[in-house]
Design brief:
Layout: E1 3-13, E2 16-27, E3 31-35, H1 42-50, E4 57-62, E5 68-71, H2 83-88, H3 92-109, H4 115-127, H5 133-143, H6 160-174, E6 178-182, H7 190-201, E7 206-210, H8 214-220, E8 223-228, E9 231-236, H9 239-274, H10 280-295, E10 323-334, E11 337-348, E12 352-356, H11 363-370, E13 378-383, E14 389-392, H12 405-412, H13 418-427, H14 444-457, E15 462-466, H15 474-486, E16 490-494, H16 498-504, E17 507-512, E18 515-520, H17 523-559, H18 567-588, H19 591-595, H20 597-627
Parallel strand pairs: 3-7, 3-8, 5-6, 6-7, 12-16, 12-17, 14-15, 15-16
Antiparallel strand pairs: 1-2, 1-4, 8-9, 10-11, 10-13, 17-18
Helix pairs in contact: 3-4, 5-6, 9-10, 12-14, 18-20
């Protein structure tokens, strides 16, 4: 079994510690999820393992012969090549073997004794899928959302998302034994993520995955490693098991922290009181023991990280009487592309409709239609007369640049104390120093988080959210989901985050190029329904294939020359064909045949025909024997 061993790794940048005594082992045959807040150092750890960056202290060792495949968030594609040619570079080793095979074949034809080398190389070439590379290329590019019309697209003309997908395709086709995948689901729509998930399930080696896709980590991970306070902590099982175990661990550590703090404070109070009195020796002894225990790490000296649960205290009275939204026959197209048609929606108060599907089917456009930002082609819609809509768009820029983060939140809820505001912001990963930053100094992701918190605190009775989990790390996503779980109003949300869909939706609108369907329940309910439908279709297809196979068998029997033979005559044919096959195999041993490539090819074709005739005779004998 191959192993990647990270031992005592330390790394800092400009005096800021990123990794401190980070220690972990990764093994081939397992898929590990690497989690932690944005900026914690997960990508840095990958770069150190891959060798792109050196640790300040510590070591990284890999088993001899272990091939690492590394997907970075920065694309390293050749801008002068087209998509297909660049991704085809994953097969350079196969092309080199193929060229070597041709060279060996020519040398055999010239009389050189290189048959053994040719056979060994041919076996390696076949085992590596040498003749299937074109099919594999099409499968991977198609699975990651590229159509044949994009194969010639120059790398230099690609968007950042397209380059990320192309880099992922090239890595997967290289078939490395152990994969380091840094946010592989970025820029993938929900169909491509499901395809990647199935690909990784079938991967023969191991993998470590940095991802905010908790659904993927639930389905793939056998272990979760969290980068917490510059160190690595391991949790057995998948992501959901990690969440439960981590909460219990934090609760236990919190209690122990309070207990240890109380003990240490009492000991130090006693020591300070009696160091200069009659009990000086006792105080000195207790001080020595206390310092020794602290040095041995017997106490929890740091307060554990806070739980990710946070309460938003929504206003009462968010529920409305009667339907909140009615939409009938909605349709929208751009030029010749029909996004949706005859779309009907009815939402009662408190319902949670989540909309999902691949890119380009009109999910965000549908939200803009019902927000009257985009004109519909057909249909009608109407909101409740008392609907107070809070809309989170992906591209909104309504923040005041000179306002601080804290002031932006307290503008919505002025009754909140600064401490209460900072606690809410902390759940969305705003550290103590960043809550006083001006909004104009924040990154795009940070600005999105501020907008989300402001929207939630404004307590509209209808929330319309367009990809609200974009730019959020796992902790912020969980804070958002908890807030929405406490929210009593009506939710309409577009998302490709399957974990979010599971925790938020009570009905699902799935939009696809072939049409739209509504399902009761969440994403897992939808997948279960699809699997049941596929089982029914597969069963019907198998029955149809069996019927066709029986028809072909009957037709063969009607046309077969063996129909006019007795079973004894068929046995004679079988023996004759066996002799022919044996005789051809003997001719392969002739050195003159090996020297002549044309003779080798001709003899191979002759052997294939003889074997086919033998197989046909054996099948006829078997069917005749069953009838007797």
């Amino acid at each position: 079994m191959g192993t990647v061993n990270v031992q005592g790794v330390c790394k800092q940048f400009g005096g800021q510690i990123v990794l401190d005594q980070a220690t972990v082992e990764f093994h081939s045959g397992e898929t590990v999820g690497l989690v932690g807040p944005n900026g914690a150092g997960k990508s840095t750890l990958f770069k150190i393992i891959e060798g792109e960056m050196q640790p300040d202290l510590g070591t990284v060792t890999c088993s001899r012969g272990m091939e690492l495949g590394y997907l970075s968030q920065e694309s390293d594609l050749d801008p002068n090549k087209g998509l297909r040619d660049e991704v085809m570079g994953a097969f350079e080793h196969l092309f080199a073997m193929e060229k070597r095979l041709h060279d060996l074949s020519d040398r055999m034809a010239a009389g050189e004794a290189v048959l053994d080398e040719y056979d060994r190389l041919q076996h390696r070439f076949d085992a590596a899928g040498g003749y299937d590379h074109e099919q594999r290329l099409n499968q991977v590019l198609g699975g990651l959302g590229f159509g044949p019309e994009e194969y010639g697209l120059p790398v230099s003309a690609m968007s950042g998302g397209q380059r990320s997908r192309a880099s992922l395709a090239k890595l997967l086709l290289q078939d490395s034994q152990f994969l380091l995948l840094d946010e592989p689901t970025n820029h993938l729509d929900i169909d491509a993520v499901r395809w990647l998930e199935r690909f990784l399930v079938g991967h023969r080696g191991g993998a470590v995955v940095i991802s905010h896709d908790r659904y993927l980590l639930d389905r793939l991970a056998t272990r979760i490693v969290e980068l917490e306070k510059h160190r690595l902590v391991t949790y057995p099982g998948n992501y959901s098991n990690y969440v439960k175990t981590r909460e219990l661990r934090l609760l236990t550590q919190g209690r122990q922290f309070e207990k240890d703090r109380e003990f240490i404070e009492k000991e130090r109070a006693f020591i300070n009181k009696h160091m200069a009195g009659q009990r000086t020796k006792e105080a000195q002894g207790r001080r020595t023991r206390l310092e020794r225990r602290i040095g041995n790490g017997e106490f929890v000296l740091e307060k554990p990280a806070e739980s990710r649960r946070v309460k938003f205290d929504f206003d009462e009275g968010l529920e409305l009487d009667g339907p909140v939204l009615r939409a009938d026959g909605l349709a929208k197209a751009y030029d010749d592309k029909q996004l949706f048609r005859d779309l009907n929606i009815r939402l009662d108060s408190g319902m949670r409709l989540c909309i999902t599907g691949p890119n380009g089917v009109g999910k965000s456009t549908l939200l803009k239609v019902v927000m009257d930002q985009v004109e519909r082609d057909d249909g009608e819609f109407e909101f409740h007369r008392r609907a107070n809509i809070g809309y989170y768009a992906q591209d909104a820029t309504e923040l005041k640049e000179e306002q601080t983060v804290v002031d932006a939140i307290r503008e919505v809820r002025p009754e909140f104390s600064e401490e209460r505001t900072r606690t809410l912001l902390g759940a969305f990963r705003f550290s103590e120093e960043r809550v006083f930053k001006k909004l104009g100094q924040l990154s795009g992701g940070e600005r999105s988080r501020v907008r989300l918190v402001k929207l939630l605190l404004s307590s509209p009775n209808v929330l319309i959210l367009d990809e609200p989990t974009n730019h959020l790390d796992i902790g912020s996503r969980e804070a958002l989901e908890q807030a929405l779980a406490d929210y009593k109003g009506t939710i309409i949300a577009v998302s490709h985050d399957r974990y979010f869909l599971d925790r938020t939706a009570d009905r699902l609108l799935v939009m696809r190029p072939e049409g739209c369907r509504t399902f009761a329940g969440n994403y897992s309910d939808y997948i279960g329904q699809l699997e049941r439908e596929q089982q029914v279709q597969t069963k019907a297809k198998q029955q149809n294939q069996r019927g066709k196979k029986n028809q072909r068998r009957e037709k063969r029997r009607e046309e077969s020359p063996f129909d006019r033979m007795t079973i004894a005559e068929i046995e004679t044919v079988i023996m004759e064909r066996e002799e022919v096959v044996a005789e051809i195999n003997e001719r392969f041993a002739d050195p003159e045949v090996h020297k002549n490539r044309e003779k080798t090819v001709s003899l191979s074709a002759e052997l294939e025909v003889a074997r086919a005739e033998l197989l046909a005779a054996e099948q006829a004998w078997s069917e005749r024997a069953d009838e007797s």
